[in-house]
């Protein structure tokens, strides 16, 4: 427990000083801008996304890892909602794992990992994002049936329905995101790999 608190405190300090650094850098950029007009997309990519993705990554990694451990170690017997919740936590954990690479890209604006990793990171980002949304939808449908149709609740609490729903969610997410693999590539600009997400 003490180790976890120390790690959390360390991550909080790293995040805090990163935000201070990015804020200082943003303010310096605003002072040197002579036109008074902000290139909002560049500022969002350079300052907002790295900070937000860092926060989401830290909270998502710690929180979802703890949820998975608790569900696997402590919760028995598993019901349909438990199975969906574990799959939701896995999707969120995989989503959070893709964020540090994107933070590094947005801060440096250079992609050093090659085209295969570019496709893989963006695929993981969107695949697990869509999966999380669909798992929340599944959970809402299961809860709706349990509240509005209480006689059918016993049937829907069976593991079989949750497993089928989770398999369907992973498959639907794959079908939604699959075509994106052909549209993601890197782009060379000024002899440097600049952009990691380009629709062709």
UniProtKB/TrEMBL annotation:
GO cellular component: plasma membrane
Keyword field contains Transmembrane: yes
Record's subcellular location: Cell membrane
UniProt key word Transmembrane helix: yes
GO MF annotations, alphabetized: G protein-coupled receptor activity
Residue spans crossing the bilayer: 7-24, 51-72, 84-107, 127-149, 161-184
Domain G-protein coupled receptors family 1 profile: 63-200
Record protein name field: Oxoglutarate (alpha-ketoglutarate) receptor 1b
Gene3D superfamilies in the cross-refs: Rhodopsin 7-helix transmembrane proteins
Pfam families in the record: 7tm_1
Membrane protein topology class: Multi-pass membrane protein
Record-linked InterPro entries: GPCR_Rhodpsn (IPR000276), GPCR_Rhodpsn_7TM (IPR017452)
Keywords, in A-Z order: Cell membrane, G-protein coupled receptor, Membrane, Receptor, Transducer, Transmembrane, Transmembrane helix
